Amino acid sequence: MVNSIETSSSVRLLSGLVTGYVAVVAGTIAALVVLTAVGSPRATTEAWVHAAIVAVFAILLPLRLRAARQGSRGALRAVGIIAGVLAVVNVVESLIPGLFPGWMRVEMIGIAVLMGLVVLAVVRVARHG
C-alpha cells in the first residue's frame, strides 16, 4: 500500500488554497499586463518584480503539493515553509511606504492571508493525515 494522504479532507482544502494562490498570481500578472498596455503608472517595475517572484512560487507550490499528496512528508514540510515565508514577506513588503501601488498592497495582504491558511492546513494534514 502506498503511503498517500490524497483522500484527506485537509489535503483537499490545502489543494484548494494552493489553487487559489495560483489564480491570484495569474490575476495579478493579467492586471499588470493590462496596466502596462494602457501606460498606467500603477504597473511599476517593483510590481513586476514582485509578480515574477510570486509566479515562481505559483509553479513550485503545486509541484511540492503533488509530491505531498503522494506521501512525501518532506514535500508537505516544504509547502508549509514556502507558505510561511510568503506570508511574512508579503506582509513586510506591503508595509514599506511607497514601494508598491495600493492595489498591489491589497493583493499582497490577500496572499499573506491565503498563505497563513495554507500553513494551518499543512499543520492539520501533518497532525491528522
Describe the structure.
Keywords: Membrane, Transmembrane, Transmembrane helix. The chain crosses the membrane at residues 12-35, 47-63, 75-96, 108-126. The chain is mainly alpha-helical and 129 residues long. The protein has one domain (9-128). It has helices spanning 9-37, 45-69, 73-94, 102-128. The two termini are 15 Å apart.
How would you describe the shape? Answer: elongated
Determine the mean pLDDT.
Answer: 92
β-strand percent reads under 5%
Total tally of structural domains? 1
Structural class: mainly alpha
Order of helices and strands: HHHH
**Weakly predicted, low-confidence segments:** none
Q: Count of DSSP E strands?
A: 0
Our count of helices gives: 4
For the biggest sheet, the summary is: none
**Using only CA atoms, what is the Rg?**
16 Å
Terminal residue distance:
15 Å
Q: Give helix % range.
A: over 70%
